[in-house]
Amino acid sequence: MNEESIKTALIAGQEKELCDLVKGELSNEESPKSILDTMMAGMNIVGSRFQAKEIFIPEVLFSARAMTSATNILKPLLTKSDVQPLGKVVIGTVLGDLHDIGKNVVGMMLEGAGFEVLNLGRDVAPERFIEAAKENGASIIGLSSLITTSMPQMKRTIELLEEAGLRDQVHVIVGGAPVTQDYANSIGADGYADEATGAVQKVKELLHLEQ
Ligand code: B12
């Protein structure tokens, strides 16, 4: 796989070029998962450059847009639709937070592993998570937070779940760049993972499904 070209197009925010490269890799029988991993590595470089103030929000937005389009090409190949779901997962990015790339990747990997995923999007209020889990009989809520200021919404969602009397029926997993296992423990979450494959494993573990 031409990893460097993929990363370069992603970092430069070249949506069409990136999508063409991804399609080319797929026609060369490259695995969708390794293409996704390469793009995530590229997005990490974007993150480091943003942090180092070498690039700014507009550039990050272009990269994010390119990644979203290219990920949509991979989505049907990473997800299964013809099997009985292993369980239902409600996932979203918490209130006040507009980052959704990582959450979408986690959702996609869960679908690929055979779960039914209800993706609520981003900037999702705690009440909405509870409603959605209740209405759909979900056994897992996945909360994503990428900014430290939105992390308390995870705690709030768990509290509301308790107030709704659903805490023993619904497991909560949390993730996102600033979230840690210690933070997950401190708010009483049932699971944490720092990347999508770990998230799938964690969900299987919580539902006592074989690995
Ligand atoms: C892309 C990006 C943006 C894009 C988002 C576009 C989009 N559609 O998502 C835009 C430009 C909109 C943006 C805006 C902002 N951003 Co920004 N952004 C990023 C950046 C560069 C990359 C994030 C990303 O997509 N990574 C790639 C994905 C694949 O990784 P991931 O999200 O971490 O997800 C993986 C894991 O975390 C995990 N995971 C994720 N969710 C979940 C959920 C569960 C349940 C589980 C188990 C696991 C899990 O699995 C995923 C896949 O492996 C990060 C830098 C970074 N290092 O994270 C900054 C970053 C998150 N942003 C930051 C900031 C400050 C902002 C702004 C406040 C900037 C501003 N001044 O306006 C705004 C916030 C707006 C808002 N209210 O949300 C800071 C946050 C600092 C902090 N700790 O609070 C970061 C860390 C950059 C930095 N170092 O300063 N941003």
Structural account:
- This protein is of the alpha/beta class.
- It has two domains: 3-78, Methionine synthase domain (Methyltransferase, Methionine Synthase (B12-binding Domains), Chain A, domain 1), CATH 1.10.1240; 88-206, Cobalamin-binding domain (Rossmann fold), CATH 3.40.50.
- It is built from nine helices and five strands, in the order ααααβαβαβαβαβα.
- It has a five-stranded parallel sheet with strand order 2-1-3-4-5, sandwiched between helices.
- α7 (152-163) links the parallel β3 (140-144) and β4 (171-175).
- It starts with a helix and ends in a 5-residue tail after the last helix.
- It binds cobalamin.
- Residues 40, 43, 46-47, 50-51, 57, 60-61, 64, 96-103, 105-106, 142-144, 146-148, 173-178, 193-196, 199 line the site of cobalamin.
Number of strands: 5
Mean pLDDT, nearest integer?
Answer: 93
- What is the strand arrangement across the widest sheet? 2-1-3-4-5
| Structural class determined from secondary elements | alpha/beta
The backbone outline, from C-alpha atoms, is: globular
SSE order, as H and E?
HHHHEHEHEHEHEH
Distance between the termini: 29 Å
Strand content: 5-15%
Question: How many independent structural domains?
Answer: 2
Which oligomerization state do the chains in this entry correspond to? single chain
Which fold name fills CATH's third level, the topology of the largest domain? Rossmann fold
- Assign a percent range to the helix content: 40-55%
Q: Count helical runs.
A: 9
The CATH architecture name of the largest domain reads: 3-Layer(aba) Sandwich
Largest sheet: number of strands, sense, barrel closure: 5 strands, parallel
Low-pLDDT parts are none
Bound molecules: cobalamin
Q: Over the alpha carbons, how many angstroms does the gyration radius reach?
A: 17 Å
CATH superfamily of the largest domain: Cobalamin-binding domain
* The CATH top-level class label of the largest domain: Alpha Beta
